[in-house]
Design goal:
It is a single chain. This protein has one helix and ten strands, in the order ββββαββββββ. The protein has 122 residues and is mainly β. It has one domain. A five-stranded antiparallel sheet has the order 1-2-8-9-10, with no helix packed on it. 16% of the residues are buried.
Length: 122
């Protein structure tokens, strides 16, 4: 599990944790960052390789976001050419578990489990 914060830092009204305008919580999901030249970093990579890739990563701004493949995956394209793909992980017996959550600057949260992706007010 890890959190990826994007955009300007925000302090929620509860004051619990400073986070980005877009805050992505990865829990059980399969994720991968893809670069235009074909390189990728994914959930199953060695931790040191992930850390190294993240340290060099320059995403830029969110250019687009879409739900794909019959509602089972999220694609976020950044204006510096990097794409983030997040797919739910159909772990047997864990269908109700949240796999990823995406908090947006529009006071909405997208929540995915292996059955569906829902959007709620936060």
């Amino acid at each position: 599990m890890f959190v990826l914060d994007l955009g300007q830092p925000e302090q929620p009204p509860s004051g619990t944790r400073l986070h980005g305008e877009w805050s992505f919580l990865f829990e059980l999901a399969n994720w991968r960052f893809e670069w235009p030249e074909g390189k990728s970093t994914r959930a199953g990579d060695i931790a040191d390789e992930i850390d190294k890739a993240f340290a060099q990563m320059d995403l830029g701004l969110v250019a687009s976001a879409s739900i794909e493949e019959e509602g089972s995956s999220l694609r976020i394209a950044f204006d510096h050419g990097v794409t983030l793909m997040v797919e739910t992980n159909p772990i047997l017996g864990m269908h109700s578990e949240d796999q990823w959550l995406l908090y947006t600057p529009f006071k909405r949260v997208w929540i995915a489990n292996s059955d569906d992706i829902a959007c709620e007010n936060r």
